[in-house]
Design a protein that fits this description.
mainly alpha; 4 helices
Length: 85
């Protein structure tokens, strides 16, 4: 799941030009989004392939994008550092 969120994060961040993109904020956005998405653990190559195929579905992608967007809005409203002028 982490790979999926990180792969989509820049695409979603492009829709929020005023959002801070420092490493702290990027980490906070990813962690917040991941905490609101279901975990997918696999222990076999077959399980990994199934998970990757599932990750390609439209509904799955929409959910990931929605959670990243929500996380961006929360982190933007309450960054853990001083807001830049």
């Amino acid at each position: 799941m982490e790979d999926v969120v990180l792969a989509k994060m820049d695409q979603v961040l492009d829709q929020y030009p005023d959002c801070c993109r420092c490493e702290q904020c990027r980490r906070d956005i990813a962690i917040l989004a991941l905490n609101h998405l279901p975990a997918h653990y696999v222990s076999t190559e077959k399980g990994e392939i199934f998970t990757r195929v599932q990750a390609m579905s439209f509904e799955y992608e929409v959910e990931v994008i929605q959670q990243i967007a929500k996380a961006i809005e929360m982190v933007s409203a309450h960054p853990r550092h001083e807001k830049k002028a």
